[in-house]
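Hello,

Our lab assistant flagged a job as stuck in the queue for most of the afternoon. It eventually completed. Since we weren't sure the result was trustworthy after the delay, we are filing this so someone can double-check. Below is the sequence as submitted and the structure that was eventually returned. Let us know if re-running is recommended.
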Amino acid sequence: DPRVGPLLQGVHRQYVGDQDFANNNGQEGIFTPEHLDQIADQSMPLCMRGLHKGVKQDHKLRHQGRQQYWLYLKGAGLSMEDSIRFFQAEFTKVMSGDQFNKEHMYNIRHAYGKEGKRTSYSPYSCMKIIMGPAPGQGEHHGCPYRHQSEQSISALFGSMNINGADREKIMVHVKKQAFQVACQRHFEVTHPNAHARGVSTDGVGNHPNAWTSASVEYHHGGDKAAASTDKLAGKGAADDAPAFDAGAQAVAAAGAANG
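-- returned structure --
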């Protein structure tokens, strides 16, 4: 595959941060089944957003997709109990509860280090996802920048209201097959002035969990973390508005200004 060449040239720059996200050290309290739809739209990179949309659309994932998404959610802070609750609610729309228990319960527990060798597995890095198997029909795993056509990616950004100059900032790198740089640009156009706000973007474009961690910090971090967690938990809420609306409006406003 000619697209692999640029990846191999950049191996020395791949994510080597201290966090491997193996021990559920993400945004606990923010990542709950009730908020995953909102988080997917606001704080997931394309690869994980696609997996989430696949779950909601098909109520199932094939093996590669399950592994990629289970471990990502674990690293992001979704507890094992909540992971079971979320996937059971979705998968049992197309299978029985007994079938879910037999086919998936053990594997989710295994991913969290509660079965087998009791190893706490790390979420997939961008390089692992990019170099992994391409998705087939009905599959949602992989890296969209590598595994989908330029036209599909461009249309996807259009559906996310990323248009004009912002979309071109991303697509120019897709066309160069610089997949991870394209992912970084996606973060930048949806999180304007992140560095000025003190958000650490170390690992963005090299690890999906780093992308999400930086996004959550952007929208809910710093000295507002406790208040954001309370808001997500419904404490002191003035109404039933989605907890992520304020951040989404800020991104939308910035996008309109750039347009």
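-- support follow-up --
The delay was a queue issue, not a problem with the job. The result is valid. The radius of gyration is 18 Å. The chain has a mean pLDDT of 82.
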